[in-house]
Write a structure and sequence with these properties.
homodimer; mainly alpha; Helix Hairpins; Four Helix Bundle (Hemerythrin (Met), subunit A); monoatomic ion channel activity (chains A, B); TPC1_animal (chains A, B); transmembrane helix (chains A, B); voltage-gated channel activity (chains A, B)
């Protein structure tokens, strides 16, 4: 019986750590515990962020943040040393053999060594050389525990690459065929425009045409000579853009489904296997069929050190559906479904102000009824709608003499007062807890508070905060609450937000790598009036032009889209992501460097395309998965009834095993609540929000049974063997774990 | 027992005609048969096409096709009279009451009346007035039987509209908010550029920004003043383009899934109900539990008049899986799965040249082995690859003095000879039937034949056919056969082709309607050097411009994107579909007409967006449905074994019931084949390609059982009642159907 090892198995199951990284000796255990806590994770994250931030200060730096070579190279070395320290800790935990086998860690080590050497070279030479390897820095960030979602995202992108690349080749093949056709045809018919004069230009024109960025323009010279020449372009676009691009999306969609299913399967079976391992460790030889509350409690004190005794008890009750004195393995398989629950007694009273004196109660009750009435809600919608129309009219009639700093319209104050009163009424009527538990209320609240802050900023004339005032039309978003569909869609989106954030982070990591490469090669190559030899010279021109008899300053702003520092690079890359007119940037840079620069831009386009399709497919699939549920299905709820006797019994048990005050008080709270309500039992509700795993469970219901059957067929002989081993041989692998410290209240961290 | 009525029920089930349109009296039956044959369908199609084609000749006409008002108005009246005639036929069949209730037909009638009035007005006034109603002409085409797929497509688009519009409103809402922000902010900071100077311009700029068509340009003036102003645009695009647009796709995807499932369910149950009706009519009172071969044969002679007696017999055998003397209802439910099968005796010999003399046989056998060998295949791939490289090099070194008409390179002839020999070898080795049954071989064959035709064209100096020569790089597409994935993907695409064609047709119908509206309002409004007051004047300018000291002719070609005739309109609309730079056309037209013109272009953008998303989702879903099958699963195969006795028995039966020579000869063929092969039984294979219905059947396997259960719960009491009615009351509704004409060989058409 070893609670700590069981807890570690369960942790590994949760984090999807493979079991061959399971600590095998006391040193490894210490290292495991050291490397698995939030402090360490946070250090990893901060080191990763620091390394990435450094590119703000390294040449070519953002002007206001420029640091001396000396300073930033030292900072870099410091961060690298920290990474090295983290890696050493990992080495201690994994052992040399496992460490070598772990691909991601090995890549990280190599990159680390490279960066070390380069940082030292920079320090010695006192100047930065071409450091393209900085593009690899995001590896340090991605590897840290908190970026697991980004890592999964990246893995998914790489997994869907092979079929994607196949179809991409088909796309390129048609491009080459049409380039050959284009060159022959246009050559033949003497439309000798620069779009198709050489094979390279043909290919580039058709690549840009694929992105539609040069569309009618590339066709126009030929179209003006012969109307039927549009057929060439229409056929090309129909095949490439509307057929093969859709095919690409279809292939990504197809692969995504498969990959998702396989991933879910392996996660599910890994968790099951972790539970099996933990269960084997928990059951004692006297009682081989089950886990008692005492054992479960011991486990949970390692697995979730911060969980209160009451919650541990309730979790046990939630698992124990059969009511038997022990948890069977079948019960225990639901472990991961119940550990995340937040427990709460089902309210005996209806309102938060039930305990107040009678008169106050009546007042609050009145406010509550008012706030909950349809009339109040619709009155508020009307106010918001009027406000919307008001803002529109105001903006429409806004004249040039107007400035926010001099004049606050009275309507602004009136509406703000109404919103303020509404927020106060709702908070008092519903109670702060109920009020803030709704996302919509939180939104209302923050918009109103921001508007007030804006007003204060205006009153005290704090110029930089004016933008807050401008945000007031956001109030209008509340109107979308009226319709059920919007509520569903927006709630779903809210649930999907973490996932979308990880998609965004993945994008930023791609941006970072491309920005570094761009800065190393293209920093400072474009400037006003450059690129005069290219076809896009106009967009970079800053010159006086004469139209007939009128002279104007024609300003082509594209020289602003440069790679002069990391922030500009990000903006430039965003513009490339949006695709429109991206070829102007490409041609500008190409004309000032070499033809090979196009490779950079084309690669970036393709990478963005993969990622964009990936996220489209991802969002669509998730949406279909999450959306069809009715609003009350938004969470998973477990119900547990606790009787007075049970509570007393448990209290006794805890008094024996862990007599610490804090643990007992939470259980005594249960008894007090029973006394107050006068009932002999109390119902607790455990609540958590739906996860993708819950929905996938429902979706693959049948397959899961097959997987489990398959899994147990493969694994059944092994436990038997190991049991025999345990019985026969006197402990061949001495466990690194200390004997269970039943009386200690500390979690895994305490060992250090 | 009434074979014809049963056949009509089955037809209605197949065509998804509702049963309330079932002909109730002899006159209706005659009308039904008149309106349900290919001649009538073809007439409908041609009338629809003629009406649509008319817009080529009506003012503003394509110059070379211009017709006199007199002529085209008369043609139109003629076509409309034909439509009216078709409608009268339908009225006769449906009866006035049902006719009124049928929505689509009513709409068609109203449009017809309107068009009649207008055509007459045109004839009287001798000049065309503003005839926007011509945009409704596609209704006549869409309503015809052959355009069923387009109709379903349109219905699907309309069904997915409500949720789409909801999200679109969210999109527009954010657009308004950002327009207000943009106007206030830019006003405030004095970036008084024309993009945001009024609320209308703000909105238009942001709408165009949503399509990304003006992207970096709209940001540049502000960005050059303050680098942080890019945040406004990045936030806007992130919300609108990357969030809400993806949400739109997700919603379309979600709706699509639901709509597809519901459609499949209703079709399936409708078919089942049709089979129930037909079965009730077929079973006789003596034998209430089954359908004999004689009855089935009588049914099939009405349902598929052109099917041979052998195939009717084989179809019966395929249905009759239990081997009982009668078909039970359960057997009969598979009716629609087996009626489309093509029957073919399983080849006793292996090669098509088995019957030839021995020496010839050996030669052919040699060719067969050669053609099937891996070595031959890879040799051909190598030839194709060399040809590809050759063409690339040739095109690369192509100089301006070269012209196809003067000089045919020897390499062209060499490669063409190799391909020609390959085609001949394959045809002789595999046999023409086996060769042409593969899509890839067909492709090879046609490309090679086209290349030969091109060569002949060159030899005889036929200038307009040179383009054929240019198509030769298409041969390279064969290289994609090497990899399994490409074969799968391209085969799937080939299977999906009809569906994609119907998507394309839907697009053309949208184009047509928009083209008519465009021509009525915008014909002739843009011309060179127009639009000088707009922001896009440059794109329409045809003028000498002085850059410093150099004067060049700057040609803005956008005046070519006009609505001057239907062909130009189609090209312009295609450019608008591609989206890039679409606002130049919009602003040009707007500056020459009124601000309301923007509505036309924006509506077109949104319509195209819906359709594009629809087809993306459609293709992805279909692809996932069709693709995962292995290549040998590409078709549905039924196997039926016919013994000598059975064949003789059936022949006897047919001699009694339909002694026509043609019907007997097909059965005698079976006996002859048995004699030749010397076996006492012969196996026939029935083959058809997979349809979506087969795959959906597999996909919704479980739901289908539920649906059937639900269906029979609802419908079981009714058949009982009707049976009782039949037994008790002496025929309350006299059937319009004549007694079964067992001896006639004619199908439903013969009645007229």
């Amino acid at each position: 019986m070893n609670y700590q090892e069981a807890a570690i198995y369960l942790q590994e199951g949760e984090n999807n750590d493979k079991f061959f990284t399971h600590p095998r000796n006391p040193k490894a255990l210490a290292a495991y515990l050291f490397a698995h806590n939030h402090l360490f994770y946070m250090m990893e994250l901060l080191t990763g962020l620091l390394l990435m931030m450094l590119s703000l200060c390294e040449a070519p730096a953002v002007p206001s943040l420029r640091l001396d070579v000396y300073v930033h190279a030292t900072l870099e070395l410091l961060a690298l040393v920290m990474v090295a320290f983290e890696l050493c800790m990992k080495l201690r935990w994994l052992g040399f053999h496992t460490f070598i086998r772990h691909k991601r860690t090995m890549v990280k080590t190599c990159v680390l060594l490279l960066q070390f050497v380069e940082a030292i070279v920079v320090l010695i030479r006192q100047t930065s050389h071409v450091r393209v390897t900085r593009a690899l820095r995001p590896i340090f960030l991605v590897d840290c525990r908190y970026c697991g979602a980004v890592r999964r995202n990246l893995r998914q992108i790489f997994q869907s690459l092979p079929p994607f690349i196949d179809i991409l080749l088909l796309l390129l093949f048609f491009m080459v065929i049409f380039a050959i056709l284009g060159k022959s045809y246009y050559f033949n018919l003497q439309y000798n425009k620069s779009y198709f004069n050489t094979l390279e230009n043909s290919l580039v024109s058709l690549f840009v045409l694929l992105t539609t960025a040069n569309f009618p323009d590339v066709m126009m010279p030929a179209y003006s000579k012969n109307r039927w020449s549009c057929v060439f372009f229409i056929v090309y676009l129909s095949i490439e853009l509307y057929f093969i691009m859709n095919l690409l999306l279809a292939v990504v969609f197809d692969t995504f489904n498969d990959v998702e299913k396989m991933k879910f399967k392996s996660l599910l079976l890994h968790k099951r296997s972790a539970i099996d391992h933990a269960f084997q460790l928990l059951v004692s030889r006297q009682r081989p069929m089950g886990v008692s509350l005492k054992q479960f409690d011991g486990l949970m004190r390692f697995y979730r050190p911060r969980m209160s005794a009451r919650d541990r008890f309730l979790t046990y009750k939630a698992l124990n559906t059969s009511g038997a004195p022990m948890l069977s393995l079948e019960d225990f398989y639901k472990f991961y479904e119940v550990t995340g629950l937040k427990w709460k007694a089902r309210r005996s009273g209806e309102y938060w102000f039930d305990d107040l004196p009678h008169t106050t109660f009546l007042i609050f009750k009145g406010i509550n009824l008012l706030v909950k009435s349809k009339a109040f809600q619709y009155a508020m919608y009307v106010v918001v709608a009027i406000n919307g129309v008001w803002i529109l009219v105001e903006t429409y009639t806004l004249n040039s003499g107007f400035s926010w700093s001099r004049f606050v319209p009275w309507s602004y104050i009136v509406f703000l007062t109404i919103y303020g009163v509404e927020v106060l009424l709702k908070i008092t009527g519903l109670g702060p807890v109920a009020y803030f538990s709704s996302g919509w209320n939180l939104f209302d609240f923050s918009v109103t508070v921001f508007a007030f802050l804006g007003l204060i900023a205006l009153a005290f004339d704090m110029e930089p905060f004016y933008f807050i005032v401008v945000l007031r039309p956001l109030q209008l978003l509340r109107l979308f609450k009226i319709k059920q569909r919007y509520r569903n869609v927006l709630d779903t989106m809210f649930e999907l937000f973490p996932r979308m954030a990880s998609l965004g982070l993945t994008l930023i990591i791609f941006y970072y790598s491309f920005a570094i490469v761009g800065m190393e090669f293209f920093a400072g190559v474009v400037y006003p009036n450059c690129c005069n030899t290219s076809t896009v010279a106009d967009s970079y021109r800053l010159i006086n032009i004469t139209y007939g008899n009128k002279t104007v300053l024609e300003e082509g702003y594209y020289y602003l889209n440069n790679f002069n520092n990391i922030l500009s690079s990000f903006v430039t890359l965003f513009e490339l992501t949006v695709v429109n007119n991206w070829y102007i940037t490409m041609e500008g840079v190409t004309s000032m460097t070499s033809h090979w620069s196009r490779l950079y831009f084309m690669t970036f386009y393709i990478v963005t395309m993969v990622r964009h399709m990936q996220s489209q497919v991802f969002l669509s699939c998730m949406f279909v998965l999450f959306c069809p549920c009715s609003p009350d299905e938004n969470g998973i709820v477990f119900e547990v009834e606790v009787s007075r006797d049970e509570a007393l019994e448990t209290l006794e048990l805890y008094k024996q095993t862990c007599p610490g005050q804090s643990s007992l008080s939470s259980l005594q709270g249960v008894l007090q609540a029973m006394d107050r309500s006068g009932h002999s039992s109390l119902v607790y509700l455990g609540h958590r929000s739906r996860t993708k795993s819950d929905l996938s469970m429902k979706m693959y219901e049948e397959e899961i049974q097959e997987w489990y059957a398959e899994y147990s067929r493969e694994n059944l002989p092994q436990p038997d063997q190991s049991q025999e081993q345990e019985l026969d041989s006197p402990d061949p692998n001495p466990s690194p774990f200390p004997e269970p410290q039943l009386n200690s209240q500390t979690g895994p961290h305490s060992i250090n």
